[in-house]
From TrEMBL:
Similarity field: Belongs to the UPF0382 family.
UniProt-listed InterPro entries: DUF423
Protein name as catalogued: DUF423 domain-containing protein
Subcellular location field: Membrane
Main localization category: membrane
Entry keyword GTP-binding: no
Transmembrane segments: 46-64, 76-97, 103-123
Membrane topology: Multi-pass membrane protein
Highest taxon listed in the record's lineage: Bacteria
Organism whose genome encodes this protein: Dyadobacter fermentans (strain ATCC 700827 / DSM 18053 / CIP 107007 / KCTC 52180 / NS114)
Amino acid sequence: MKFMIQAGGILGALAVSLGAFGAHALKGMLEASGRTETFETAVKYQFYHALAMVLVGILMQRAGEDAVRMLGWAGNAFAIGVIIFSGSLYAICFTGITKFGATAPIGGVALIVGWVLLILAAGKF
């Protein structure tokens, strides 16, 4: 519970930091490579799911045992999804190696699984 909120907070702080870094220090590089939109997508998805992890942590404090277990899986799926999805987009932006994009759908599936698990956990309240 506490860990999920803290992990969400860390991912959120990193998203804000990366967003600011991209908008200022990396602006020229991202524009030159045509990757501004890719970088913004990575930051947005990281931030949305950081908030989702905080929500999961809060819900875990109020849920019964079955729901807590499922919420934990949901939060883990969000974390894995952010690492793989946003991480692959960041890797494309920083390296120019577009093959990293092949892993983005795996991260996207993990994010979707997290939302489905959150829905299922809500049914156990």
